[in-house]
């Protein structure tokens, strides 16, 4: 059973989300939060698998709430606004995905399942903008932690930067998914990262992809592979 916390400051929207998720097989809504501060408190207390997080909320916003939740739960941002600063801020804060509220109910449920399983999703239009942003920014100084990675772990990090899922990484590197999960966990630990999305950003920032942008889906999830 996937346990979900819904955080949105509009009661009607929360009710709709709860109805959609509560009616899905294998999904249980364990709580509702009307602002970011409440979302943080409830996430720490309830330990859900996924927090469905709005961005614009009174007091503590969704980006700061995502940062404070840390690796307690995986965060899937769901918002009306796809402004670049929101996308970048949410992903760098550790969100496993970013969707717009225009998403259809089946796609939302599937996104929650994917995030709970350790992958992540971005709305297609958002993905293209994020990749263009990565491609247009000059590589940043090589993070010191990269030197602690083995050659295989660097290969896995490159794959994360390309937006590949565990299954796709396994096929590309000719290793099993269990081995992939072990490598991903070690990469996140060595680089002190909370999510696969953050690892993908670091790979892009460090120029490990040679300026090549990833595909249409970005895999992600907190430090739990």
From TrEMBL:
The modification 4-aspartylphosphate is found at residue 54. It holds the Pfam family GerE. Residues 142-207 form the HTH luxR-type domain. Gene3D superfamilies: 3.40.50.2300. Residues 3-116 form the Response regulatory domain. SMART domains: HTH_LUXR, REC. Transmembrane segments: none annotated. One of its GO terms (molecular function) is DNA binding. InterPro entries: CheY-like_superfamily, NreC/VraR/RcsB-like_REC, Sig_transdc_resp-reg_C-effctor, Sig_transdc_resp-reg_receiver, Tscrpt_reg_LuxR_C, WalR-like. Keywords: DNA-binding, Phosphoprotein, Transcription, Transcription regulation. This is DNA-binding response regulator.
């Amino acid at each position: 059973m996937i346990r979900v916390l819904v955080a949105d400051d509009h009661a009607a929207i929360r009710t709709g989300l709860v109805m959609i998720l509560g009616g899905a097989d294998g999904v249980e809504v364990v709580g509702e939060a009307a602002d970011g501060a409440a979302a943080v408190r409830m996430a720490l207390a309830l330990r859900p698998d996924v927090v469905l997080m709005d961005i614009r909320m009174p007091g503590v916003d969704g980006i700061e709430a995502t940062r404070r939740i840390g690796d307690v739960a995986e965060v899937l941002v769901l918002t009306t606004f796809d402004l670049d600063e929101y996308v970048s801020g949410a992903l760098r804060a550790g969100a496993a995905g970013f969707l717009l509220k225009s998403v259809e109910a089946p796609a939302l449920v599937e996104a929650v399942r994917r995030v709970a399983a350790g992958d992540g999703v971005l709305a297609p239009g958002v993905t293209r903008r994020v990749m263009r942003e990565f491609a247009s920014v000059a590589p940043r100084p090589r993070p010191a932690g990269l030197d602690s990675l083995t050659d295989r772990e660097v290969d896995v990090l490159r794959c994360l930067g390309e937006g590949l899922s565990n299954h796709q990484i396994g096929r590309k590197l000719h290793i099993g998914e269990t081995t992939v999960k072990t490598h991903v966990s070690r990469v996140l630990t060595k680089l002190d990262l909370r999510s696969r999305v953050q690892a993908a950003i670091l790979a892009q920032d460090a120029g490990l992809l040679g300026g090549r942008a990833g595909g249409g889906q970005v895999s992600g999830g907190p430090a739990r592979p």
